[in-house]
Specification:
about 325 residues, pyruvate-formate lyase- activating enzyme, 10 helices, 9 strands, binds iron/sulfur cluster
Length: about 325
Amino acid sequence: MSYYWGHNRRFNDFSNHIRKVFNGSKMQKISIHAGFTCPNRDGTKGVGGCTFCNNESFKPSYCQSDLNIAEQINRGIKFFERRYDSVKYIAYFQAYTNSYAPLETLIDLYESALSYDGVEGLIIGTRPDCLSDQLIDYLKDIQKRYYVAVELGVESTLDVTLERINRGHSFDESKQAINILAKNNIPVGVHMIMGLPGESFDDMLKHGEYISKLPVNYLKLHQLQYVKGSKLGNYYLENPQPDSLLNLDQYIDFVVTFLENLRPDIVMERFTSQAPHSLLIAPKWGIKNFEFVRILENRMEKKDTWQGKYYSPVSF
Ligand code: SF4
């Protein structure tokens, strides 16, 4: 059976989608740490950062901020060349807020990544409140030559949660950023964290409903991880509450229901995150993203369900 997205996987997955965008070529993202900071750390928006954040936990092992961009891309390519025969690359500016610098600096950094042989696209990870009109104009312009997308850390659709985690922006600001990017035909990805303090399963399912109402192209879900060096991690070390953690089985069931109610054209990029072993405090699921996906797909098959099965735009 082929679903709405044109293949028989039970959700609209990123690897098939991006292969289609690049006319059948295998694409691989190379994470780049370009030395940015973030306005939620330097006092512009706040200090101390989001309570869950230790950026060291997000980046892959080949990605080192003390190397220049060309060296990071070179390392990334060497890392992936061993695994895949023929592959093209997207430079993924991942760590911290990758649009938080003067425009000329941003352009220099992005162009130095794009000038590397084999790099055919750019994904910029940033906050919804860090997108200037000038940057959007620039992205629109380079889109004529490269694939360009922006990934926004939305994290929650509930303002009460955003305040609790010291995020420094509201859900309205996320909506505005998503709409502006879409209006300018720049593909927009959204990053959400499931299991943030104070959120129920119903709240988490509602995130899917709200995101389905917006012109979002890609979605990444992560389970909340308590990591060393973050405020939440420090709090958990002093007040461990294992019963409050999402367990793997619950999370898989949750993701199935979440997908059933999600708009079918939203491309799912991730479902879990894996902080390095040395940083992760809890929950310790010991599972990689691809293993999670295998279990998820088995469960969806058993239930004979798929992304968007119960999605109905009129119900919103
Ligand atoms: S998650 Fe992003 S916005 Fe929040 S403190 Fe970390 S780098 Fe800054």
